[in-house]
Amino acid sequence: MLVLIRGAGDLASGIALRLHHAKCQVVMTDLPQPTAIRRTVCFSQAILFGEMTVEDVTAKLAASVAEAKEILAQGCIPVLADPECSCIGELKPDVLVDAILAKRNLGTKITDAPCVIGVGPGFTVGVDCHAAVETMRGHTLGRVITEGSPIPNTNIPGLIGGFAGERVLRAPVDGIFRQLLQIGDHVKQGDVAGTVNGEPMLCQIDGMLRGILADGTPVHKGMKSGDVDPRGEKSYCYLVSDKALSIGGGVLEAILRYSEVK
């Protein structure tokens, strides 16, 4: 079974990892200049560096659908710099998973593949997808939605270690982001993780810097640009999150429920 995933950020990568382990053939697409925060667990980094290994799975940059098929034959995940998903006509996937996590539908249609799955807010079952998967932390995380839509975006991150919004680092102004700290660094409240046009982006809590934008990334004021994990466990920086694995399980269930298994 060939599954095309739109997006290759941390949640999309968790989905890809789970599907790959379940013997699905997975192809991913993302921006030519990815804006991933948790870069150590994002297959999107293959676009920048040629290849990227997350846990025990390697993704490689593909310049074309033909090259993507060669990479699949190697047992790896191909990633195309194709934000418009123009490869879909040539690739003809059995399943399309929209895991861009844009909080709205950026163009995915229910007719794009025999089975179309929307991940998170912005999708309505029967309108633009055959099934959707809940991304909100809590009792319904990872559940397959067969009617209606996932819970609307609240702009409030889920609790980790007793902290929610304080975990997220946001750009102080519009401009170009300059990274000062590295993923895996211990941080204290008030530490400067990066700057934008000379304005500091301050850590709000103590913990481990689990994610941060790459140096030179254009940002707008309030844009998510970093993530502090209050648990302070360095290994978590290099493991797909519990949330991503839960969502990946939901996507796998949706595929088995709503598509013909090949």
Task: Give the SSE map.
Blueprint: E1 2-6, H1 10-21, E2 25-30, H2 45-49, E3 51-54, E4 57-62, H3 65-73, E5 77-81, H4 88-91, E6 95-98, E7 115-119, E8 131-133, E9 144-145, E10 168-170, E11 175-179, E12 186-187, E13 192-196, E14 199-202, E15 207-212, E16 218-219, E17 224-229, H5 242-258
Total of domains: 2
Largest sheet: 9 strands, mixed
CATH topology of the largest domain: Rossmann fold
Secondary structure: helix percent:
10-25%
Mean pLDDT: 94
Radius of gyration: 18 Å
Strand content: 25-35%
Care to describe what's here?
The model has no long low-confidence stretch (mean pLDDT 94). Helix 1 packs across helix 5. The protein has two domains: 166 residues, Rossmann fold, CATH 3.40.50; 66 residues, OB fold (Dihydrolipoamide Acetyltransferase, E2P), CATH 2.40.50.100. The chain is built from five helices and 17 strands. Strand 3 and strand 4 form a beta hairpin. The N and C termini lie close together (5 Å). A nine-stranded mixed β-sheet has the order 3-4-5-2-1-6-7-8-9. A four-stranded antiparallel β-sheet has the order 10-17-15-12, with no helix packed on it. Strands 14-13-11-16 form a four-stranded antiparallel β-sheet, with no helix packed on it. The protein is of the alpha/beta class.
Observed structural traits:
Rossmann fold; 18% helix; OB fold (Dihydrolipoamide Acetyltransferase, E2P); alpha/beta; 9-stranded mixed sheet; 28% strand; 262 residues
